């Protein structure tokens, strides 16, 4: 069996050590593994190389604002689960962030990989539309759930699934991380928070952007709105430190 990973360079799986740049564990020293493939298509996605393939974009109408498409062969690599675990262990980090794409599309394979990493804490980045199989769920310390708002370009019937949002809302391991680009987006966050009883102490506003200037400009209005409505704030620390770069 194998996992389908994103690549840093062709053939080189995106497994690396860095800091967690977002959410409640921002600043923690972690290992990352980035899986390929996603079931949504955000127009501003900063990892479009995990899903926006040459030849697929027009056929399946999955737009991205950059217009750039990616060769699947250069940006995907299959990796045996035991080998993926070995590379994670080689980072020396005791906490693993599993990201994508949408990593829970490969939940069963991830559970098998983690059998080789019994002492590693697991944090999963997810768009909130999928379910971890029990063998994976039992290993998860933290879910970073990022439901996609209207400005992502995803249809709400695909991106905002009531049964999944309600399930995450009552899971104390789940933290909600909303990407916001303009003040009106916060009203949408508040409406979803009320509708699905999302705990405000576990709900974060995060600026959309892939450079420090854009992030800082949005933080200027995000911080006072978060304070007004009792929400949390997260920046994107890795962008400030490393730029919008793979493997960071």
Automatic annotation (TrEMBL):
GO-annotated molecular function: 4 iron, 4 sulfur cluster binding; carbon-nitrogen lyase activity; magnesium ion binding; S-adenosyl-L-methionine binding
Pfam families documented for this protein: Radical_SAM
Cofactor: S-adenosyl-L-methionine; Mg(2+); [4Fe-4S] cluster
Keywords recorded for this protein, A-Z: 4Fe-4S, Iron, Iron-sulfur, Lyase, Magnesium, Metal-binding, Queuosine biosynthesis, S-adenosyl-L-methionine
SUPFAM superfamilies reported in the protein's UniProt record: Radical SAM enzymes
Binding site for substrate: 19-21, 34, 99
Catalyzed chemical reaction(s): 6-carboxy-5,6,7,8-tetrahydropterin + H(+) = 7-carboxy-7-carbaguanine + NH4(+)
PROSITE patterns, sorted: RADICAL_SAM (PS51918)
Cofactor note as given: Binds 1 S-adenosyl-L-methionine per subunit. Binds 1 [4Fe-4S] cluster. The cluster is coordinated with 3 cysteines and an exchangeable S-adenosyl-L-methionine.
GO biological process, one term: tRNA queuosine(34) biosynthetic process
Binding site for S-adenosyl-L-methionine: 44-46, 101, 146-148
UniProt xrefs under InterPro entries: 7-CO-7-deazaguanine_synth-like, Aldolase_TIM, rSAM, rSAM_sf
Radical SAM core domain segment(s): 25-244
HAMAP family on file: QueE
Biological role: Catalyzes the complex heterocyclic radical-mediated conversion of 6-carboxy-5,6,7,8-tetrahydropterin (CPH4) to 7-carboxy-7-deazaguanine (CDG), a step common to the biosynthetic pathways of all 7-deazapurine-containing compounds.
Protein family per UniProt: Belongs to the radical SAM superfamily. 7-carboxy-7-deazaguanine synthase family.
Subunit structure: Homodimer.
Protein name: 7-carboxy-7-deazaguanine synthase
Species: Paraurantiacibacter namhicola
């Amino acid at each position: 069996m194998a996992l389908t990973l994103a690549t840093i360079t062709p053939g080189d799986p995106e497994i690396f050590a860095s800091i967690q740049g977002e959410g409640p564990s921002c600043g923690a020293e972690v290992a990352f593994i980035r899986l390929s493939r996603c079931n949504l298509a955000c127009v501003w996605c900063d990892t479009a190389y995990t899903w926006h393939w040459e030849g697929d974009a027009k056929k399946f109408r999955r737009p991205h604002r950059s217009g750039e498409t990616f060769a699947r062969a250069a940006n995907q690599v299959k990796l045996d689960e035991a080998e993926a675990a070995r590379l994670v262990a080689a980072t020396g980090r005791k906490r693993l962030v599993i990201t994508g794409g949408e990593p829970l599309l490969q939940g069963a394979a991830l559970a098998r990989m983690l059998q080789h990493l019994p002492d590693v804490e697991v944090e999963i980045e997810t768009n909130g539309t999928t379910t971890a199989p029990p063998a994976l769920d039992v290993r998860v310390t933290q879910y970073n759930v990022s439901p996609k708002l209207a400005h992502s370009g995803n249809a709400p019937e695909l991106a905002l699934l009531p049964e999944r949002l309600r399930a995450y809302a009552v899971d104390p391991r789940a933290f909600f991380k909303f990407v916001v680009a303009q003040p009106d987006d916060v009203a949408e966050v508040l409406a979803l928070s009320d509708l699905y009883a999302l705990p405000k102490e576990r709900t974060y506003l995060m600026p959309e952007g892939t450079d420090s200037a854009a992030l800082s400009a949005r933080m200027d209005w995000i911080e006072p709105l978060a304070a007004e409505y009792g929400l949390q704030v997260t920046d994107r620390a890795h962008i400030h430190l490393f730029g919008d770069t793979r493997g960071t």
